[in-house]
Write a structure and sequence with these properties.
Keywords: Amino-acid biosynthesis, FAD, Flavoprotein, Methionine biosynthesis, NAD, Oxidoreductase
Oligomer: single chain
Helix content: 40-55%
Pathway: One-carbon metabolism; tetrahydrofolate interconversion; Amino-acid biosynthesis; L-methionine biosynthesis via de novo pathway
Number of helices: 11
EC number: 1.5.1.54
CATH topology: TIM Barrel
CATH class: Alpha Beta
Order of helices and strands: HEHEHEHEHEHEHEHHHEH
Bound molecules: flavin-adenine dinucleotide
Shape: globular
Low-confidence stretches: none
Radius of gyration: 18 Å
Distance between the termini: 21 Å
Number of domains: 1
Strand order of the largest sheet: 1-2-3-4-5-6-7-8
InterPro entries: FAD-linked_oxidoreductase-like, Mehydrof_redctse-like, MTHF_reductase_bac
Strand content: 5-15%
Number of strands: 8
GO cellular component, one term: cytosol
CATH architecture: Alpha-Beta Barrel
Length: 286
């Protein structure tokens, strides 16, 4: 089933994201965790794509296991900036022959020192190619605080519109820890004529160290109550996990109370975290 058809149903959706292993020896463990998360019956799941494409077969295989063994609809991510056109086209073909109908089309981060491939500059080029390659539902990324490379938020929104015009069926946001950032972004996106569904990406922070990584990845602003939480509990793994799950759950409750319908949780291959969040909001998303 196409994810856009799930999003267009008149209901609240909760979806989870997992990432593929870097090494073959970890494949079974990651696949097991992905299937444990799938057993929670989210509306769909997504499987990220390792930068550079070296783990692309794991993305495909985990996506297949989620879909075929757990009967949960799935979206495979695909990046292009560090790959040749040939590799990207081969991957699109592999997804098609394995009946994966949903692709999250991404440029990917430019590796330090630059990419050795120059076939793609932006995700919009990949979106057009996927669109021309078959009947896929295409997701794309968006950045409530602006993508770090965009000069300013207005330019980033104009570039986002290009991705939608190229054929993105829906957008998923980068993580944010302040819902007001998301509400402001949503307003600006709608004002710019971006009318596709926008799925709010929520990252439960369960370890103090994760905050540093989240900041590097997303440049996201952190409200004082979030910083206080990490300062207080960041060195105590169990307390940080509990606090992070509650913080993410509260973000989701506020989003849904404010009329937002689609939530994607960056569950980071952690079934216990996904399960706790599902439990906390189970009545709210009904
Ligand atoms: P683009 O849309 O190409 O944007 C990149 C920059 O170029 C932005 O500054 C934008 O404003 C600008 N731009 C875009 N189009 C144009 C244009 N036509 N003309 C001029 N400027 C333009 N990374 C992975 O490696 N694997 C993953 O699985 C993965 N999944 C992700 C999922 C989500 C929901 C998000 C938010 C990010 C994900 N990323 C992933 C990270 C992503 O690859 C990086 O953020 C990357 O730097 C940008 O990718 P993009 O697809 O947004 O690029």
């Amino acid at each position: 089933m196409k994810i856009i058809d799930i999003l267009n149903q008149d209901k609240i959706t909760l979806s989870f994201e997992v990432f593929p292993p870097k090494l073959t020896k970890n494949y079974d463990d990651v696949a097991f965790k992905a299937k444990e998360i799938a057993k929670l019956h989210p509306d769909f799941m997504s499987v990220t794509y390792g930068a550079g494409g070296g783990t692309s077969e794991y993305t495909l295989n985990i996506a297949k296991e989620i879909k075929e063994k757990e009967n949960v609809e799935v979206m495979a991510h695909l990046t292009c900036v560090s790959s040749s056109k040939e590799h990207v086209h081969n991957m699109i073909h592999r997804l098609k022959e394995n009946h994966i109908e949903n692709i999250m089309a991404l440029r990917g981060d430019i590796p330090s020192g630059g990419s050795k491939f120059h076939d793609y500059q932006h995700a919009s080029e990949l979106i057009k190619e996927i669109k021309a390659s078959g009947d896929f539902c295409i997701g794309a990324a968006c950045y409530p605080e602006g993508h770090p490379e965009a000069g300013n938020k207005d330019t980033d929104i104009k570039n986002l519109k290009k991705k939608v015009d190229a054929g993105a069926d829906f957008l998923t946001t980068q993580m944010f820890f302040d819902n007001n950032v998301f509400y402001n972004f949503l307003f600006r996106a709608r004002e710019a004529g971006i009318d596709v569904p926008i799925v709010a990406g929520i990252m439960p922070i369960t370890r103090g160290l994760q905050v540093k990584r989240a900041r590097e990845l997303s440049n996201c602003s952190m409200p004082q109550r979030f910083i206080s939480m990490v300062d207080k509990f960041g060195d105590n793994d169990e307390a940080m996990k509990q606090a992070g799950i509650i913080y993410a759950s509260e973000q989701i409750i506020d989003l849904i109370a404010s009329g937002i319908k689609h939530i994607h949780v960056y569950s980071m291959n952690k079934p216990d975290v996904a399960c706790a969040i599902m439990h906390n909001v189970s009545e709210i998303i009904r």
